[in-house]
Amino acid sequence: MNGAGIIKGMIETARNFVGSYHDKARLTTVQYPEEKLPPVENARTIPFLVFDGDEAMAGLRCTACQICEKECPPQCIYIIKDPVKKPDYVGKMQIQPKVFDIDISVCMSCGICVEVCPFDAIKMDQVFELSTKDRFGALLLDKTQLAKPNDYFVKLHKTEASEIDVRRDDEKRKAEAAAAAKAAAPKPPAAPGGAK
Amino acid sequence: MSGLHQILVWIGEITGIIVVFGSCFALTTIAERKILGRMQNRFGPNRVGPWGLLQPLADGLKMITKEDIVPFSADKTLHFLAPLVLTVPIWLAFAVLPFGRNMSAIDLDAGILFFFAIGSASELAVFMAGWSSQNKYSLVGAMRAIAQMISYEVPLVLSTVPVLMLAGSLSLNDIVAAQGTHTYLGLACWNVFTPWGLAGFLLFLIAATAESNRSPFDLPEGESEIIAGFLTEYSGFKYALFFLGEYLGLFAMTGMAVTLFLGGWHAPFSWLEWVPSWLWFGVKFGALIFLFIWVRATLPRLRLDQLLNFSWRFLVPLCLINLLVAAVWFWTRGWNSVPALLIRWLLGAAFIVLPWHWLGQALRGPLPPPRKYTYAE
Q: What tens digit of pLDDT does each residue of B203-221 get?
């Protein structure tokens, strides 16, 4: 019949109109500033530096190897090595960064720094409300601003973080065992897994 | 003294129309966006003010403060004049509409003729806008607009002819007065309660939708095809004027539909006549505006050939047949017993429903042969 499709369509829209007032499930819009969706585990925005323990600068996993700096496609990472070494999680003395800056106005959120880091020291954050009125100073983050605890990392990327934690605990235990029986046996080469 | 008095009355009438329909425009823009949103399971604008009610204010401020860009190679005079030519005549069209009892600005003997004559000026404005912009999208939009508006002018005017014939007058006040009688249970004798009136009402609404360039007949603007059609090169206040003109055109058409078919400012039942007449007009007006928004939320845009076929092969013949239905209704006006009335209705309905079915079938026609591509096979 002529016009039957039009009537059908009109009924559908009328149903939407009435339904959207009493059936909240129809309205899928998330009203952003008031409501927020929980972040997805694989979401990524800008990198941050992971530290262990309570002291941010002491527990920083970064060894200033500068791989991320060299790999970064838009060259937004700037690192200066500190001659003063500090022990890492297995007790080995490592170089630490004196300066670790990321210009987040340049960062393109590719995550290559994370992929190349052999120390699981740099990971992707999920913060996104980063707008600021100072576009030069406030968008250049230094290592104190970038450093975030491991708990935070676990919270963001649960699967990846727990895997890393298990491996690092394992290595730590091995290192302790080796230290306990350090009489003659040569130290097994600690192979922190960056091979992914 | 009486001359001064007359001038004051005119100023009062003009101010009233501009204030009422100007605020109607603001209200409709927000209402349309809200209702469209709800019909698509969205919220619609709800950020500016409580429930987003100040949205028209924000839109207006934005439009006024935007830069007014005129293309370098545009015909500057026509480009400037087009929004004015669109808006001014439409304000004039409101002069003849009776908004309530004794509430029309001027009672012209040929009010409906004046209305359609003034209303067709918008075609000129749209073509001025499209041509003067020196932009191919503008020109395509303007040419579509001309084809569409001239094609739909015919059914628009033809669908009103039965009303004029049966009321015996071109004056809108007389037409409203002719619908002021009552029948069983005090039901008003509106034109829409007759077979020719119902058909004419629907035909008028379809033609009015096309005439005011609204979806599903929004080809001249067709955003997904030709950017914004004849509006492409307009910005800022001129753009706002075009929108004002389009909405006012819609209001004028809606007011006309109410006047011609829905009994104007009359109440639907005689025992409801105590409600102010302008309120009845407003209620019918609002309901029709809602219907237009509802249709916009539902139907997709037509193709140009479908649009023209629909007008010339469906609406125009139906309008002509509707004249015959009106004639039958007129000849059988003495049949007032209930079975006779039933036969009268069936006769009228048959005259309109059967052609409606056949014309619709013919309009679909055989499917076109599969398209042959020369290069892109």
A: 999 999 998 888 888 887 7
Residue B326, domain member (yes or no): yes
Question: CA-CA distance, B256 to B209, in Å (whole number)?
Answer: 13
Tell me if chain B has a CB within 8 Å of the CB of A16.
Answer: yes
How many domains is chain B partitioned into structurally?
Answer: 2
Strands A122-124 and A47-51: antiparallel
Residues B54 and B64: their CA atoms lie apart, in Å, by 16
Taken in order of first residue, the domains within chain A and their CATH numbers are 47-180 (3.30.70.3270)
Query: Which residue, of B22, B49, B65, is where some domain finishes?
Result: B65
Give tens-digit pLDDT for B184-199. 777 777 888 888 888 9
Has residue B118 been placed in a domain?
Answer: yes
Find, in chain B, the residue whose alpha carbon is nearest to that of A7. Answer: B298
Average pLDDT over residues B20-26: 89
Is the ipTM higher than 0.90? The answer is no
Structure tokens at B217: 């007949």
The two counts, helices (H) then strands (E), for chain B are: 14, 0
Going edge to edge, which strands form the sheet with A140-141?
A77-87, A93-103, A140-141
Cα distance between residue B253 and residue B250, in whole Å = 5
Contact: B40, A31; criterion CB under 8 Å:
no
How many angstroms separate the CA of residue A39 from the nearest CA in chain B?
22
> Residue B183 above 80 pLDDT?
no
For testing the chain A interface, which of B41, B209, B217 should be mutated: the one with the most A CBs within 10 Å?
A: B41
B38/A29 CB distance under 8 A: no
Query: Hey, is the C-beta of A131 within 8 angstroms of any chain B C-beta?
Result: no
Containing structural domain, residue B297: 69-362
**pLDDT tens digit sequence for B246-275:** 899 999 999 999 999 988 888 888 777 788
Same domain, B60 and B94: no
Using the Cβ of B51 and the Cβ atoms of chain A, whether some distance falls under 8 Å is answered with no
Q: How large is the average pLDDT for residues A15-25?
A: 87
Are B247 and B323 part of one and the same domain?
A: yes
